Amino acid sequence: MDDAGEIVGTTTRETQITLKDVTDHDVLLEFQTTREVAGQQFRESQVFRQGFSGELKGYEPISIRQLGNATVLIDGRHIPCKLRRVEMRGPRITRTSSYYYSDKMAPYVLKQQSVSSETDDTSKYETTVDVIAMNMPYKVLAEIKSTSHVKTVHKNARGTTFTLEVHCESVPGGVVAHSSKELSGDGKLLRRSTLELIDYGLDRVDEAGQSRIPRRRQLQRSQRTTRESRAPRQSPR
């Protein structure tokens, strides 16, 4: 965005995410991305593991504590949850997160509050995630599905990013759409982005396939393809 708030360019990125493996502690994900900038396409592929507490490679939980019962207010209803606090440490960042978890109501993590800080205390990041509506009808490809709407606010010294997401329990990866905007510290609009799901599938693995995905994980590989468009970030003047 320029100083007048006009779009000066658009980047389109198409990403296919495939679940490759599941262990007792984490999942292995493959990302294949095609990015189009100024008519040119750039492709890249990445594979990494992500833990069930949100940790990426290089991060390790310092402590996981159950803090008892809590409630979250959604759609005028007080929904009972379990409150869990997870502390993790990475190469440069320490993160403390509180999760309000329900094992009966999708998307299950109904509220999340995280504070991340660099080990030298030079930077601090705060993230709040709230489910703001549940059982909302939304068209996913050719079907109307029940979804949850989620709001995420991410703050750091440079500004704030607001994201609204649509989550669907029956779609691999959960997120079927989002819209996002990034503001500078003085409130100037820097960048906007949208994401839409353009395809997804479930490939069943039979016993003869020697899949390493445990039976209790439903012996499925999943993949999702999304397309994201964004206006480029401009430095505040």
Strand order of the largest sheet: 3-2-1-13-12-11-10-9-8-7-6-5-4
Radius of gyration: 19 Å
| Count of helical regions | 0
Number of individual domains: 1
Beta-strand residue fraction: over 45%
Structure, described:
By secondary structure, the protein is mainly beta. It has one domain. The chain has no helices and 13 strands. It has a 13-stranded antiparallel sheet, with no helix packed on it. β10 and β11 form a beta hairpin. It is globular. It starts with 10 loop residues before the first strand and ends in a 7-residue tail after the last strand. 13% of the residues are buried. About 8% of the residues have low confidence.
What is the compact description of this entry?
The protein has 237 residues and is an all-beta fold. It has one domain. 0% of the residues lie in helices and 68% in strands.
Which key phrases capture this entry?
single chain; 237 residues; mainly beta; 13-stranded antiparallel sheet; 0% helix; globular
Ordered list of secondary-structure elements with their pairings:
Elements: E1 11-22, E2 26-37, E3 40-51, E4 60-74, E5 77-89, E6 93-101, E7 109-118, E8 124-140, E9 143-156, E10 159-167, E11 175-184, E12 189-204, E13 220-230
Antiparallel strand pairs: 1-2, 1-13, 2-3, 4-5, 5-6, 6-7, 7-8, 8-9, 9-10, 10-11, 11-12, 12-13
